[in-house]
C-alpha cells in the first residue's frame, strides 16, 4: 500500500475539478475523483491513466448521505485509508430571477453546493483528526462575495461556504487541520463557453487581466493550499479572478 | 486481557495526556481532566474503535467520565 496521502476531489470529471485532480496527482497525492455517473467515473479513471497519476474515479451523489458513506467505505477498501485532503468542488447552477425562482431551484442548490460540504467534511474529519493533519479546500465563487443577478440561490450557498469554512477552521485548528476557500471568478469551462464574443468583451472590461481564467489557474491555488507550504493558512478565502474583485 | 475499565483509562490517558492516577472512575473529562469539547468527540471515536462499536450521538454526549464509558460499553457491547 502506498504511503502517499489520499486526496478526494468531488466533481472531477471535467472543468475545474478535473484540473484540480490532475494537479494534486502530479504533486504525489493518490486522487479519488468523483462523478455522478458510471461513465463519468470511468472517464476519470482513464484520464488519470493517461496523465500517469495514481487514483481512480468513483460514483457519488454528494446530496445523499448514504452515497457519501458508501464512498468512504469504498475508499477504505481500495486504498486502506481515508482522505486527508478533501476538495469540495462539485456544484451546480440553477439560475433564475428571485421573483421566478421555484422552491426546487433554491433547495437543489443548497443541497448540492452547501449541505454536501457539511456531509463530506464530517465524514472525512474522523480520519484527519486521527492523522492530526488535514486539508479541507472548498471551491467558492466570486459571486458569493459580489452577488450576481439571477443567482440568489448560488451566491447564497457560496457565501455560506465562507462562513462554514471559518467556523470549522476554528473548531479543528488544534488538530492540524486547515479549512480554506478558493473563490474562482470567470473560468473557461463548459459554463462560460456559452458566452458570445460581445458578452466576453464586456466581461473583459471588468477584469484587469483581460482574460478568462483557466481551470489550471484554480487548480494551482488548490494545490498550494494542500501543500506543506500552506501550513499556516486557515479560514481564508483566496480569490482567483484576474482582479475583477479584490477582497 | 485487560478489563474494560483499564482499556478505557488507557485511552483517556493517551488522548488527554494526563497521568494515570488522575484518571479515576468519577473524574469528569472536561471539568477534572482538562478535555475540550473536541477531545470528548475524539474520545468517543477512540472508544468506538477500541470496542468495535458505534455510539449514537445522543449516547455519546452522556459519556463524560470513565465510569459512564464503562457502563455504556457493558450495557451495549457484546463480548466486551
Automatic annotation (TrEMBL), chain A:
<comment type="similarity">
    <text>Belongs to the short-chain dehydrogenases/reductases (SDR) family.</text>
</comment>
<feature type="domain" description="Ketoreductase">
    <location>
        <begin position="5"/>
        <end position="190"/>
    </location>
</feature>
<comment type="subunit">
    <text>Homotetramer.</text>
</comment>
<comment type="function">
    <text>Catalyzes the NADPH-dependent reduction of beta-ketoacyl-ACP substrates to beta-hydroxyacyl-ACP products, the first reductive step in the elongation cycle of fatty acid biosynthesis.</text>
</comment>
<protein>
    <recommendedName>
        <fullName>3-oxoacyl-[acyl-carrier-protein] reductase</fullName>
        <ecNumber>1.1.1.100</ecNumber>
    </recommendedName>
</protein>
<dbReference type="GO" id="GO:0030497">
    <property type="term" value="P:fatty acid elongation"/>
</dbReference>
<feature type="binding site">
    <location>
        <position position="36"/>
    </location>
    <ligand>
        <name>NADP(+)</name>
    </ligand>
</feature>
<feature type="active site" description="Proton acceptor">
    <location>
        <position position="154"/>
    </location>
</feature>
<dbReference type="InterPro" id="IPR002347">
    <property type="entry name" value="SDR_fam"/>
</dbReference>
<feature type="binding site">
    <location>
        <position position="89"/>
    </location>
    <ligand>
        <name>NADP(+)</name>
    </ligand>
</feature>
<comment type="pathway">
    <text>Lipid metabolism; fatty acid biosynthesis.</text>
</comment>
<keyword id="KW-0521">NADP</keyword>
<feature type="binding site">
    <location>
        <begin position="11"/>
        <end position="14"/>
    </location>
    <ligand>
        <name>NADP(+)</name>
    </ligand>
</feature>
<dbReference type="InterPro" id="IPR011284">
    <property type="entry name" value="3oxo_ACP_reduc"/>
</dbReference>
<keyword id="KW-0444">Lipid biosynthesis</keyword>
<dbReference type="InterPro" id="IPR020904">
    <property type="entry name" value="Sc_DH/Rdtase_CS"/>
</dbReference>
<dbReference type="Pfam" id="PF13561">
    <property type="entry name" value="adh_short_C2"/>
</dbReference>
<feature type="binding site">
    <location>
        <begin position="154"/>
        <end position="158"/>
    </location>
    <ligand>
        <name>NADP(+)</name>
    </ligand>
</feature>
<dbReference type="InterPro" id="IPR057326">
    <property type="entry name" value="KR_dom"/>
</dbReference>
<keyword id="KW-0275">Fatty acid biosynthesis</keyword>
<dbReference type="GO" id="GO:0004316">
    <property type="term" value="F:3-oxoacyl-[acyl-carrier-protein] reductase (NADPH) activity"/>
</dbReference>
<feature type="binding site">
    <location>
        <begin position="61"/>
        <end position="62"/>
    </location>
    <ligand>
        <name>NADP(+)</name>
    </ligand>
</feature>
From TrEMBL, chain B:
<keyword id="KW-0444">Lipid biosynthesis</keyword>
<keyword id="KW-0276">Fatty acid metabolism</keyword>
<keyword id="KW-0597">Phosphoprotein</keyword>
<feature type="modified residue" description="O-(pantetheine 4'-phosphoryl)serine">
    <location>
        <position position="37"/>
    </location>
</feature>
<dbReference type="GO" id="GO:0000035">
    <property type="term" value="F:acyl binding"/>
</dbReference>
<dbReference type="Pfam" id="PF00550">
    <property type="entry name" value="PP-binding"/>
</dbReference>
<keyword id="KW-0596">Phosphopantetheine</keyword>
<comment type="function">
    <text>Carrier of the growing fatty acid chain in fatty acid biosynthesis.</text>
</comment>
<dbReference type="GO" id="GO:0036104">
    <property type="term" value="P:Kdo2-lipid A biosynthetic process"/>
</dbReference>
<protein>
    <recommendedName>
        <fullName>Acyl carrier protein</fullName>
    </recommendedName>
</protein>
<comment type="pathway">
    <text>Lipid metabolism; fatty acid biosynthesis.</text>
</comment>
<dbReference type="InterPro" id="IPR009081">
    <property type="entry name" value="PP-bd_ACP"/>
</dbReference>
<dbReference type="GO" id="GO:0005829">
    <property type="term" value="C:cytosol"/>
</dbReference>
<feature type="domain" description="Carrier">
    <location>
        <begin position="2"/>
        <end position="77"/>
    </location>
</feature>
<comment type="pathway">
    <text>Glycolipid biosynthesis; KDO(2)-lipid A biosynthesis.</text>
</comment>
<dbReference type="InterPro" id="IPR006162">
    <property type="entry name" value="Ppantetheine_attach_site"/>
</dbReference>
<keyword id="KW-0963">Cytoplasm</keyword>
<dbReference type="GO" id="GO:0009245">
    <property type="term" value="P:lipid A biosynthetic process"/>
</dbReference>
<keyword id="KW-0443">Lipid metabolism</keyword>
<dbReference type="GO" id="GO:0016020">
    <property type="term" value="C:membrane"/>
</dbReference>
<keyword id="KW-0275">Fatty acid biosynthesis</keyword>
<comment type="similarity">
    <text>Belongs to the acyl carrier protein (ACP) family.</text>
</comment>
Amino acid at each position: 500500500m502506498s504511503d502517499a496521502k489520499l486526496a478526494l476531489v468531488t466533481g472531477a470529471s471535467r472543468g475545474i475539478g478535473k484540473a484540480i485532480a490532475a494537479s494534486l496527482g502530479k504533486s504525489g497525492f493518490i486522487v479519488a475523483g468523483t462523478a455522478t455517473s458510471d461513465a463519468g467515473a470511468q472517464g476519470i479513471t482513464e484520464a488519470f491513466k493517461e496523465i500517469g497519476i495514481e487514483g481512480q474515479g468513483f460514483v457519488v451523489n454528494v446530496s445523499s448521505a448514504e452515497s457519501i458513506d458508501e464512498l468512504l467505505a469504498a475508499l477504505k477498501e481500495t486504498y486502506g485509508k481515508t482522505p486527508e485532503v478533501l476538495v469540495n468542488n462539485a456544484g451546480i447552477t440553477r439560475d433564475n430571477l428571485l421573483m421566478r425562482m421555484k422552491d426546487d431551484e433554491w433547495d437543489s442548490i443548497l443541497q448540492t453546493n452547501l449541505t454536501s460540504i457539511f456531509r463530506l467534511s464530517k465524514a472525512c474529519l474522523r480520519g484527519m483528526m486521527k492523522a492530526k493533519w488535514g486539508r479541507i479546500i472548498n471551491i467558492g465563487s466570486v459571486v458569493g462575495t459580489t452577488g450576481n443577478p439571477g443567482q440568489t440561490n448560488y451566491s447564497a450557498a457560496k457565501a455560506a461556504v465562507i462562513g462554514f469554512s471559518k467556523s470549522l477552521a476554528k473548531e479543528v485548528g488544534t488538530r492540524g487541520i486547515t479549512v480554506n476557500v478558493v473563490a474562482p471568478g470567470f473560468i473557461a469551462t463548459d459554463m462560460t463557453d456559452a458566452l458570445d464574443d460581445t458578452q466576453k468583451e464586456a466581461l473583459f472590461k471588468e477584469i484587469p487581466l483581460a482574460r478568462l481564467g483557466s481551470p489550471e489557474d484554480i487548480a494551482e491555488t488548490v494545490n498550494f493550499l494542500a501543500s506543506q507550504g500552506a501550513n499556516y493558512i486557515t479560514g481564508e478565502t483566496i480569490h482567483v479572478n484576474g482582479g475583477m474583485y479584490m477582497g | 486481557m485487560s478489563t474494560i475499565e483499564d482499556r478505557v483509562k488507557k485511552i483517556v490517558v493517551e488522548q488527554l495526556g494526563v497521568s494515570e492516577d488522575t484518571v479515576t472512575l468519577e473524574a469528569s473529562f472536561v471539568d477534572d481532566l482538562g478535555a475540550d469539547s473536541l477531545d470528548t468527540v475524539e474520545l468517543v471515536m477512540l472508544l468506538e474503535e477500541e470496542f468495535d462499536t458505534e455510539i449514537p450521538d445522543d449516547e455519546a454526549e452522556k459519556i463524560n467520565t470513565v465510569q459512564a464509558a464503562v457502563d455504556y460499553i457493558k450495557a451495549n457491547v457484546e463480548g466486551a
